[in-house]
Specification:
Number of helices: 8
Number of strands: 9
Largest sheet: 7 strands, mixed
Shape: globular
Helix content: 25-40%
Distance between the termini: 40 Å
Strand content: 15-25%
Strand order of the largest sheet: 1-3-2-6-7-8-9
Radius of gyration: 16 Å
């Protein structure tokens, strides 16, 4: 049924003391993501790492998935080619309804996973790539209880207007982005960092020199260190 997460890839290491949920991107799926981030998955002990499958078939590639339709809000993919960052951000701001709809079913999935391992919100780390990163940031801010941390690979803070009205949770954030990203422009990293800090989030950034729209080995190592440092507190 649309709107419900019924598929996933789960990697269980030892006796889980923390839960990492990693959201795949647009035109992607959890199986492909699992292969791409194997070094990241294998680096944890006593951890449950879940990669949920977005419930919606992708509008561009039927064998892939999407968390919500991008063409519903940007039918011409203008966000990739508009000349200014402000124009780009305006398009992402228009996607609020898509993020909110996705949050509703993802939030239920997160609660079920926490219950499964008898863990608390502080034990949860949300990660995501591209559209999944945007949804991870949105969800981390929107959760009732503050989570342990959030990591965005090639994403941004989108639909921020809701958080001007709804007081956000303020988990620590790590924003990882490549300078040569041609799909989600690099300039969104600094914008997102400033905005998140204004909410009260502790924000770290990591720049992948000449990095394109992908998850890199150094990005995964940085994400691992970020989670380790937070979970050790």
């Amino acid at each position: 049924m649309n709107g419900l997460i019924t598929e996933e890839v789960a990697h269980i290491r030892g006796n889980p003391q923390k839960l990492i949920i990693f959201l795949h991107g647009y035109i992607d799926n959890c199986e492909c993501l699992s292969h791409r981030i194997e070094p990241f998955i294998d680096s944890f002990e006593n951890t449950a790492l879940h990669l949920p499958e977005a419930p919606l078939p992708c509008e561009i590639h039927e064998s892939k998935r999407q968390w919500f339709s991008m063409h519903r809000f940007d039918p011409d993919d203008a966000r990739k080619i508009v000349p200014t960052l402000d124009e780009c951000l305006k398009i992402y701001e228009s996607m609020g309804l898509g993020f909110e709809e996705s949050f509703q079913y993802l939030n239920r999935y997160i609660d079920n996973c926490l219950d499964l391992y008898q863990l608390e919100s502080k034990d949860l780390y949300l990660c995501g790539f591209s559209q999944g990163a945007m949804l991870a940031v949105y969800t981390a801010l929107h959760r009732e209880k503050t989570i342990g941390g959030c990591i965005s690979f090639s994403g941004l803070l989108a639909a921020s207007r809701i958080f001007e009205k709804h007081k956000p949770s303020t988990p620590p954030m790590l924003l990882i982005h490549g300078t040569a990203d041609n799909l989600v422009r690099y300039g969104v990293q600094e914008y997102s960092a400033q905005k998140l800090r204004s909410y009260g989030c502790a924000v770290e950034t990591y720049t992948v020199a000449d990095g394109q729209h992908r998850i890199t080995e150094d990005g995964m190592k940085t994400a691992k260190s970020f989670i380790d440092s937070l979970s050790a507190k």
